[in-house]
């Protein structure tokens, strides 16, 4: 089964964006590089929109059939990883927006206000609009990073296995543009 151009472009855009955002997010959390937060959040919102569109495309086009023959356990792992990645591309940016928006920091895309900030006029501190949602968003955003990394590593390892060991067309199918 040939993959649509839409599917291939969405895969590349979202994969590169998620990996970069995770890397920048880990860097920000270790170094307190506050200047990167607005950029990180802006791209997070954009990736969320692309991810929602990708879910719609996936539902409409269905899952591609495996290229070669694989053991049942490998097919199960592939299905878990693919579903996990699809879910992570939606849940991860959503959790960041929950943390920021409900936490009183607002949601902005390159300076365009989508949800206003809520700062104390005296102290300048953010006043949470909903501390429970902000906390849940924070826990998900920080807690799922290792799951995201695991899914990405297993996905890449599987793709390399197909290419180097099985010598099938799995990678070519994703990265061939006619």
UniProtKB/TrEMBL annotation:
<dbReference type="GO" id="GO:0009055">
    <property type="term" value="F:electron transfer activity"/>
</dbReference>
<keyword id="KW-0408">Iron</keyword>
<dbReference type="GO" id="GO:0005886">
    <property type="term" value="C:plasma membrane"/>
</dbReference>
<dbReference type="GO" id="GO:0020037">
    <property type="term" value="F:heme binding"/>
</dbReference>
<keyword id="KW-1133">Transmembrane helix</keyword>
<feature type="transmembrane region" description="Helical">
    <location>
        <begin position="144"/>
        <end position="164"/>
    </location>
</feature>
<dbReference type="GO" id="GO:0046872">
    <property type="term" value="F:metal ion binding"/>
</dbReference>
<dbReference type="InterPro" id="IPR011577">
    <property type="entry name" value="Cyt_b561_bac/Ni-Hgenase"/>
</dbReference>
<feature type="domain" description="Cytochrome b561 bacterial/Ni-hydrogenase">
    <location>
        <begin position="5"/>
        <end position="176"/>
    </location>
</feature>
<keyword id="KW-0349">Heme</keyword>
<keyword id="KW-1003">Cell membrane</keyword>
<protein>
    <submittedName>
        <fullName>Cytochrome b</fullName>
    </submittedName>
</protein>
<feature type="transmembrane region" description="Helical">
    <location>
        <begin position="76"/>
        <end position="94"/>
    </location>
</feature>
<keyword id="KW-0249">Electron transport</keyword>
<dbReference type="Pfam" id="PF01292">
    <property type="entry name" value="Ni_hydr_CYTB"/>
</dbReference>
<comment type="similarity">
    <text>Belongs to the cytochrome b561 family.</text>
</comment>
<dbReference type="GO" id="GO:0022904">
    <property type="term" value="P:respiratory electron transport chain"/>
</dbReference>
<keyword id="KW-0812">Transmembrane</keyword>
<keyword id="KW-0813">Transport</keyword>
<dbReference type="InterPro" id="IPR052168">
    <property type="entry name" value="Cytochrome_b561_oxidase"/>
</dbReference>
<keyword id="KW-0479">Metal-binding</keyword>
<feature type="transmembrane region" description="Helical">
    <location>
        <begin position="9"/>
        <end position="28"/>
    </location>
</feature>
<dbReference type="InterPro" id="IPR016174">
    <property type="entry name" value="Di-haem_cyt_TM"/>
</dbReference>
<feature type="transmembrane region" description="Helical">
    <location>
        <begin position="34"/>
        <end position="56"/>
    </location>
</feature>
<keyword id="KW-0472">Membrane</keyword>
């Amino acid at each position: 089964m040939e993959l649509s151009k839409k599917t291939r472009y969405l895969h590349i855009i979202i994969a590169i964006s998620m990996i970069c955002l995770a890397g920048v997010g880990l860097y920000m959390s270790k170094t307190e590089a506050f200047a990167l937060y607005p950029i990180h959040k802006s791209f997070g919102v954009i990736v969320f929109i692309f991810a929602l569109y990708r879910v719609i495309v996936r539902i409409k086009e269905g899952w591609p059939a495996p290229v070669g023959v694989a053991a049942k356990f490998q097919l199960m792992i592939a299905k878990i990883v693919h579903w996990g990645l699809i879910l992570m591309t939606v849940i991860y940016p959503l959790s960041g927006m929950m943390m920021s928006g409900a936490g009183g920091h607002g949601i902005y895309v390159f300076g365009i206000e989508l949800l206003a900030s809520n700062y104390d006029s005296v102290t300048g501190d953010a006043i949470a609009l909903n501390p429970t949602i902000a906390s849940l968003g924070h826990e998900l955003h920080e807690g799922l990073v290792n799951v995201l990394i695991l899914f990405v590593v297993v996905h890449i390892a599987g793709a390399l296995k197909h290419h180097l060991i099985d010598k099938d067309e799995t990678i070519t199918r994703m990265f061939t543009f006619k």
